[in-house]
Amino acid sequence: MSNLLELDHVTKLYPVGGLFSRKSIKAVNDVSFSLDGDKPEIFAIVGESGSGKSTIAKMMLGNEIPNSGRLVFDGVDISNIRNRAQREAFMAKVQPVFQNPFEAFNPLTRVDAYLFGTAHRFAGANTLQEKETLSDQALQRVGLSMAEIKGRFSHELSGGQLQRVAVARALIPSPKLIVADEPVSMVDASLRMSIVNLFRSLRDELKVSIIYITHDLATAYYISDRVIIMQKGVVIESGGARAVLDNPTHPYSIALKNAVLPPDPKAASAAIRLRGVRAAI
Ligand code: ADP
Ligand code: MG
């Protein structure tokens, strides 16, 4: 049994207080967990704003390097990825989906160009025909098609559609891991569940693992296999999603849960059902 991804005592500091200050904050403080290579799962990282979630995402994507500890993906220490060939091979296997699709897609570039670019760079498509075929396959996976988005600009699509295009783009290289940083927080509430369900089908049908970063306990509870709860860079609770979110033990997780759900357990499960129903309509 080998790990797809392992974080081993990962710490990331950021300087605070200006150029000549020696002070720093621990954005991520001694975080360890691993994803099994043989069993795709949805792994949620939950926490309020500023808890270090995006910093972990950036390190998983190789965009930030930890100050101490290691991130090992598929047997390779991400900090040791140096040359372009190594970087391209890594990026094909670990793909991001970001929070705001309207920021991820330049308003002056047609959205299909992003798909074609990824198909060329990471999936060996050279002709327009090849790029269109690969893009269309990925779009079909997320409930869209090439015909629907061809030649369109981002402002001509809804947030939900655009986030689906972002997921489709991420699928083109056939990644092993998708790192989705708050992927539904900018999406209209009525479309959230459909995108969240899409992640589940990708796990089950494509066997891709998903890091699902969110501050929303309800969707984390609904789709995740495992969850960690973070506060100020520290993992304060971890385990099976149901176990952790049904019975949080740390005061912060209890407070987080009570902020979303009423404390009474009967009312709480009704609220989860309600949220699910409301969001699914
Ligand atoms: P989250 O995604 O959970 O909201 P972040 O990982 O973005 O949290 O941020 C964690 C902490 O690190 C915050 O205190 C934030 O202000 C700080 N931080 C994040 N990125 C930087 C940066 N590039 N420079 C300085 N501080 C940063
Ligand atoms: Mg963030």
From TrEMBL:
SUPFAM superfamilies: P-loop containing nucleoside triphosphate hydrolases
Keywords, in A-Z order: ATP-binding, Nucleotide-binding
InterPro entries attached to this UniProt entry: AAA+_ATPase, ABC_transporter-like_ATP-bd, ABC_transporter-like_CS, P-loop_NTPase
Origin: domain of life: Bacteria
Keyword Ligase: no
Gene Ontology terms, MF aspect: ATP binding; ATP hydrolysis activity
A Pfam family this chain is assigned to: ABC_tran
Keyword ATP-binding tagged: yes
UniProt domain ABC transporter: residue ranges: 5-257
UniProt family annotation: Belongs to the ABC transporter superfamily.
Protein name in UniProt: ABC transporter ATP-binding protein
